[in-house]
Task: structure prediction
Amino acid sequence: MDTITLLKPDDFHLHLRDGGEMASIVGDSARRFARAVVMPNLVPPVVSVQQALGYRQRILACLPHNPGFDPLMTLYLTDDSSREEVDRVAESDKVCAFKYYPAGATTHSASGVTAIKKVMPLLEYMAHRDVPLLVHGEVTDADVDVFDREKAFIERVLAPLAEELGSLRIVFEHITTSDAVQFVTGESEKIAATITPHHLILNRNAMLSGGINPHHYCLPVLKRERHRQALVTAAVSGNPKFFLGSDSAPHPARSKEKPPCCAGIYNACVAIESYAAVFDAMNSLDTLEKFASRNGARFYGLPLNTQTITLRREQWRVPNMLTFADTMLVPFRAGETCQWKLLREQ
Ligand code: NCD
Ligand code: ZN
Result:
């Protein structure tokens, strides 16, 4: 197969930033994806539907030539989120979920939830209104090793939550371990997971071997090879619980290259192409459309996209640097040869 045509994919986990930064990158996503679930971790965070709709307008204003792109907004769950806001999300077709960041877990998560107990009544109400919860699945407890934070989150937070509140729809975002694959696979259809291209392609050697590479530092942090293999198996399986969420998260090169290095990898400029390469290497291009264009829409209760994209097996070189507002960023796979090329949208 030298070309593949897919229903236009959706990106169920994306960081677009704001202002000039957003203006320089959002086109990369809009070319490849029909819809994107946009993360709310701006500074200050997006905590109300009103703020989310304002942010959505700013996104669309950056895309005068791409009117088809539909940003699906999320609200940042805090200890103070209210039932009224849950009602507003339930009634909005532009805001689709709440995002749970454990306080201090990742970039711009200072306003995150300090303890799940504090938000339990609200989560019950979200389940009642069928508003999904998107989780950054890492504990921040000082006793837990960075590489074990996802596994500990499953044990300490997610499994008990799923047990107590079986009716809540949960997306376990950017999973990185075989433990997460196993957990999600064994749970009801209310629990699904997104998988990033970088966690499918890289293991932690890419960050730590032969010198530290800050451009491969993201959260949750890259894990060992057997975890990467479990993620690939889950992604290509066609299992409707697993779908595309790029977690593309741009930072200026200077913020990555000077300590402390910001967490986040910008992959939007090579996202669907990278997923295609992974599926191709597994002889599984036939399940790419499920992972990229069908499973997530089904989980979120969205109609399938009608547009398509076509990828061709053709080598091209990923740029070393991209403009990012008044500075530069280093994208995922910078300078590498990519085997699949985005041809056109229809
Ligand atoms: C994200 C960011 O930079 O906003 N960083 C990351 O490493 N993934 C935040 C997040 O999703 O954790
Ligand atoms: Zn993210």
